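Exercise 7. Given the components listed, write out the predicted structure of the assembled complex. Treat all entries as one system.
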Amino acid sequence: MILNFFHNFGRYLTMLWTAFSKPEKFSMYYKETLRQMNDIGVGSLTIVGLIAIFIGAVTAVQFSYQLDGTLVPRYYIGYIVRDSTIIELAPTITCLVLAGKVGSNIAAEIGGMRQKEHIDAMEIMGVNTAAYLIMPKIVAAVIVIPMLVAIAAFVSVIGGYAAAVIPQLMSEAEYIQGVRSFFQPFNVTMMFVKAIVFAFILTSVPSFQGYYVKGGSIELGQASTNAVVYSDILILLADYVLALLLTQ
Amino acid sequence: MIRAENLIKSFGEHEVLKGITTEFYKGKTNLIIGRSGAGKTVLLKLLVGLFTPTSGKVWYDDTDFFALSKKEKRNIRMKVGMLFQASALFDSMTVEENVRFPLDMFTNMTSKEKLTRVNDVLHRVSLDEANHRYPSEISGGMQKRVGIARAIVLDPEYLFCDEPNSGLDPKTSIVIDELIRNITVENNITTIINTHDMNSVMEIGDNIILLNQGNIAWHGDNSQVLGSENEFLQNFIFASPFLQRLRNSALKKS
Ligand SMILES: Nc1ncnc2c1ncn2[C@@H]1O[C@H](COP(=O)(O)OP(=O)(O)OP(=O)(O)O)[C@@H](O)[C@H]1O
Ligand SMILES: [Mg+2]
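Answer.
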């Protein structure tokens, strides 16, 4: 089991090493990266937006319940919604969801190409398949996912506003005062660092699962599931490690 | 020229190839024949480096292929074209995009030059009308021809074909054989073909090896097939009683 882990981890690193080598033809990689940015970014906007609204709304409602009857001023809720989404909820929940959406897609796409000998056919042509199939996906994700996360954070604050102000848990002025209090730019940096790391995980791990898939459609299904499960676990692990490192 | 030197390949306990030493010549259609499961595909994949041999060497002219770095291997592969047993066309690309892919990846041609080249090779394989169709929308024989077109679009020096005519009717099969033969001779390339089609053996077998149980059971060319007394060869080529009677009467006449 442990031996197996190190074996796979070694293969994962080797794959990444090969993936980040010089492209045969820059324009092909560029085109592929743009396509992936469109698929990952534009393709995920709706779901990310939808999730973000609810993250903000739920945070607002629950904290106003928790703080009810305490001495904590109510405008704090705006502040809490803003910071908890920026620091934790927007990057983590968005990326967990994207691991399911984008990650399973990547594993299935690359795994299908492996099984149908498309990867072999490209290798015979002289294409560095690890690079051509994987690098554009990782690069695209690392560029686009932080943007999605930023959008998610912004939309969450609006979601919080809707959930707090419309049912009159507090006044509009209070919520906005909260959102504008105690702002620390470093938290935004933290959000982007997390988003970049998570984006890397949720594209590279599924790529690995797909690239080395064997067998048939059952194995392809398993690879796709494993891609999501391992990405999710690694994202949460990385979340913890980053929290430790960045809040010291 | 490509040379296999004592190639051994095992999958776990199962030794599929038990020491293959042979040469494949330039400007000739070299055939690997043998029953289903004899190891033809495995041998072909070893020769192109998709499998690593358990032991043994593969020489491309004077170059020891498996001693090369990944990058050097890729440089050799740019001179290699391969038709896969299941065609392996990229199914989300049209026929034209499939054939153009190697050009996109490795040349600096303008899109107009690429289109001309693509149309040239598609014409070569008699597929003038199929540019904008998807692999799933064309017949198996057409897919094979697209596979050949894609394999030759960069003017390879080495061409590998895994069962170019399996699943095709005899007429189409002959057309494909002739196509490969002509390309081989005109471009003076080293072509290696896996087949168990006896028409191919007789028509384009410039140099034939017969695989049986992981060894080379017979080696020769098509002119020697009929007269050979090799039991494995006769059982393989003249597999049915009908073909055996045909052979006997042919031998009597000559
Ligand atoms: N990836 C693999 N893993 C394990 N065994 C394999 C693998 N590929 C091939 N084999 C085994 O090698 C043997 C030869 O297979 P191969 O595909 O080379 O046959 P073939 O001569 O090409 O047959 P066909 O004419 O049916 O295509 C078979 O017994 C097969 O089980
Ligand atoms: Mg085969």
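Discussion: Chain A has a mean pLDDT of 93. Residues 26-246 of chain A form one domain.
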